[in-house]
Design brief:
Strand content: 15-25%
Radius of gyration: 20 Å
Largest sheet: 6 strands, antiparallel
Helix content: 40-55%
Order of helices and strands: EEEEEEEEEHEEHHEHHHHHHHH
Length: 324
């Protein structure tokens, strides 16, 4: 990845439990359709990211945030030959719900209403969370993260729609998903799976895609990578994790893991163990320019920004200040 000019670091900070962190620069990288257990809050620093979400391509440029709710299928790719650079935090649904209950009037399960928000100030907060985590500043990292999530929920929050399983097709899809989770290492064919559920292969395929946003085989790959992440977190070696979740070998896991998570499983696990190359306290070369952390009350007084709607990098004039 280094030879291509692409680089990425995916890690956790012990003082931010339930939160994944990412810094990345990608040029030719393409994320296949996948989901996350956590929220995605990605602040674009340079370039444009295009990601398919909700049936349409979404465009996020400098100073904008890509916002994805848990278990929501989406993709990701560069919007131009220069690629894109961003920092992201992935807070757990439990943490976001806790922040929403304490700081907003949202009812129900909180989530983001639209997938792209143009707010350079909030984007800067995301980068400050990453910088504080890098420097081992637990107080700043936790404080700024909560300020950022609160601001985003107030700007762009709403109750997440609950997926109801009412139709016969949706019920069959839910049962198929449960069977695939149970037999992840040795899944049945589509024909056998449909026969067990008393339906036809194409009827099951349509129902599954309508319910979960992707066909069963794509969902299974996503679920395998998700389970492999948990195994890697527990210290299991990548080769063993690969076979456990149903991949043929470690290279098979490497290919799919990198296409979904953004880094290879070995690098992911080294960062989880704290064995990554990063020296605590050293400024990361991908950090945006340093600026003072949020002054008291400033996050409440900043004007609310508009939603980013540009289709290309050239169609939007970058903000004159505040861009990370």
């Amino acid at each position: 990845m280094a030879g291509s000019g692409e680089r990425a670091r995916h890690w956790q900070y012990d003082e931010l439990p339930g939160v994944d962190l990412l810094r990345a620069r990608y040029i030719r990288k393409t994320f296949v359709r996948h989901t996350h257990e956590h929220f995605v809050i990605a602040a674009i620093a340079d370039g444009v990211e295009i990601f398919h979400h909700g049936g349409a391509d979404q465009y996020a440029g400098p100073g904008a945030l890509a916002l994805v709710n848990p278990d929501t299928p989406h993709t990701g790719r560069a919007g131009g030959p220069e690629g894109w650079r961003y920092g992201a935090v992935y807070p757990s649904p439990e943490l976001v719900a806790e922040i929403a209950a304490e700081t907003t009037a949202l009812r129900g399960t909180p989530g983001f209403a639209t997938p792209v928000l143009d707010d350079p100030y909030a984007a800067g907060l995301v980068h400050e969370v990453l910088r504080a985590a890098d420097e081992g500043n637990a107080l700043a990292a936790d404080t700024v993260l909560r300020i950022a999530v609160t601001r985003l929920l107030r700007l762009n929050g709403g109750p997440m729609p609950q997926r109801s399983v009412r139709t016969a097709g949706a019920r069959a899809a839910a049962r198929a998903r449960a069977l695939l989770e149970e037999r992840m290492a040795e899944p049945p064919s589509l024909e056998r799976l449909a026969a067990e559920l008393g339906t036809s292969p194409f009827a099951l395929l349509r129902a599954f895609r309508d319910t979960y946003g992707m066909p069963p085989h794509a969902w299974l790959t996503d679920a395998r990578v998700r389970r492999a992440r948990h195994l890697l977190d527990s210290g299991i070696a990548p080769a063993r994790a690969a076979v456990t979740v149903g991949f043929t070998d470690q290279p098979h896991l490497n290919r799919h893991f990198t296409r979904i998570v953004g880094v290879p499983p070995g690098a992911y696990q080294r960062e989880r163990r704290g064995d990554g190359p990063r020296t605590p306290g050293r400024k990361n070369v991908q950090d945006p320019p340093q600026r003072q952390l949020v002054p008291s009350g400033a996050w409440q007084n900043r004007p609310l920004s508009r939603t980013y709607t540009g289709k290309t990098a050239a169609s939007r004039t970058p903000p004159s200040s505040g861009t990370p």
